[in-house]
């Protein structure tokens, strides 16, 4: 992947083995809101990467394997996560986009534009209520 100028950012399961032990063991004392970076590159699934973990306020831990610097890796993963959530919502969670059976490109384009606006609106409403 690196030869195409794409830096990998891979979410690690808690039981992923890094340096002979599960990744959760390395970050078990992480406090909510804290980001901890393991600066020494290690082998993860046969690739040399760095590892970081962060814990959100509800106490869920996110472990990532990445190349480069920690902050851009977290930002890239956040964008990816947002795109994955939107894709999942459009397909099966609430919009059921595949159920339309549209085949004409102009109609699909219009539908995608309207659904994308609706999705952003829902997201903005949810963010304003969470604040």
From TrEMBL:
Protein name in the entry: Transposase IS4-like domain-containing protein
Superkingdom of the organism of origin: Bacteria
Signal peptide annotation: none
Transposase IS4-like domain: residues covered: 2-120
InterPro entries: RNaseH-like_sf (IPR012337), Transposase_11 (IPR002559)
Keywords: Membrane, Transmembrane, Transmembrane helix
Membrane-spanning ranges: 108-126
Annotated Pfam families: DDE_Tnp_1 (PF01609)
């Amino acid at each position: 992947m690196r030869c195409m100028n794409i830096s990998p950012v891979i979410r690690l399961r808690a039981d992923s083995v890094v340096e002979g032990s599960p990744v959760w063991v390395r970050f078990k004392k992480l406090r909510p809101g804290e980001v901890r970076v393991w600066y020494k590159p290690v082998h993860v699934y046969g690739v040399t990467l760095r590892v970081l973990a962060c814990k959100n306020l509800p106490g869920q831990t996110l472990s990532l394997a990445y190349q480069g610097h920690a902050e851009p890796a977290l930002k890239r993963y956040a964008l990816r996560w947002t795109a994955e959530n939107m894709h999942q919502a459009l397909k099966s969670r609430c919009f059921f986009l595949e159920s339309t059976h549209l085949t004409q490109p102009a109609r699909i384009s219009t539908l995608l534009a309207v659904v994308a606006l609706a999705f952003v609106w829902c997201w903005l409403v949810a963010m304003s209520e969470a604040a």
